[in-house]
Write a structure and sequence with these properties.
With 262 residues, this protein is an all-alpha fold. It is built from 13 helices and no strands. Helix 3 packs antiparallel against helix 4, helix 9 packs across helix 11 and helix 12 packs across helix 13 (249-260). The protein is extended and about 70 Å long.
Length: 262
């Protein structure tokens, strides 16, 4: 029997102790085997589930999902503690010092006129903190693990701050048209298709940035819309006693147009 105090309410320190017990000899074999690499996907999935709870506007669900994210943080910190490299307190120490350093208008004597200046100062301080000596360094520092659309948007925003950008949305739209033409040529020739498709997507993100639309959210909504219309098409086909697989593209297109206006 493990030496553990059962309580009506637990705190962060209790969570840290539970994870330690699970990973210790005599604890849970699965927990003991985990590494940063094996838990990488768990951290991503739990973060996305927390975002979904935010979108739902359900505080109880959000509390649960934030707990799952917190578990991942404590678990990773525990692995570092076992390796003698770090622990949860040192993780907290690092982020506390970062927040103090990047908020000189709160913890220092810097004066700001508003949010815009706060964000500008934040980026400048971040570059000094990270030792980024050039604008290219700032672009390279954007995490490759981000969703591709968000990474593209973030890279473009940093390029914009360096003065590398279109003056207005028309330039971004012209580039989008140009990239579409190049993709068509690549498909016709059967070469460089992936590269040209990537350029087209990157250009689409550029347009979204100019019109202040989150590209990830826009694509998510477009996907949801597709699913909704697909459901209606399938329902229409079922009502006619037919399978979509046996219908011609023209017939499916007819059903799709009906679904669009349903």
């Amino acid at each position: 029997m493990i030496n553990f105090e059962y309580k009506d309410h637990y705190g962060v320190k209790d969570l840290e102790e539970i994870v330690r017990i699970l990973r210790a000899p005599g604890g849970c074999p699965w927990d003991a085997e985990q590494t940063h690499g094996s838990l990488r996907r768990n951290l991503l999935e739990e973060s996305y589930e927390a975002v979904e709870a935010i979108d739902e506007g359900d505080p109880d669900h959000l509390q649960e999902e934030l707990g799952d994210v917190l578990l991942q943080v404590v678990f990773h910190a525990g692995i570092e503690q076992d390796a003698g490299r770090s622990d949860l307190d040192r993780v907290a120490d690092g982020v506390c010092k970062k927040l103090i350093y990047r908020h000189p208008h709160v913890f220092g004597d810097v004066h700001v006129s508003g949010t815009g200046e706060v964000l500008s100062n934040w980026e400048d301080l971040k570059r000094k903190e990270k030792g980024q000596k050039s604008d290219t360094d700032a672009l390279t520092a954007v995490a490759r693990s981000l969703p591709a659309l968000w990474r593209a948007e973030k890279v473009q925003k940093k390029a914009q701050k360096a003065g590398f950008d279109w003056s207005e949305v028309s330039g971004a739209l012209d580039k989008l048209t140009e990239e579409l033409s190049e993709l068509k040529s690549a498909i016709a020739e059967g070469s460089n298709i992936e590269e040209e498709l990537g350029d087209l997507l990157f250009s689409a993100v550029n347009v979204s940035r100019f019109v202040q639309v989150d590209p990830e959210e826009a694509l998510t909504k477009a996907t949801d819309k597709f699913i909704d219309r697909f459901r209606k098409v399938e329902a229409q086909a079922d009502a006619e006693g037919r399978s979509m697989k046996e219908m011609s593209p023209a017939e499916l297109d007819q059903l799709w147009e009906r679904a669009k206006h349903a």
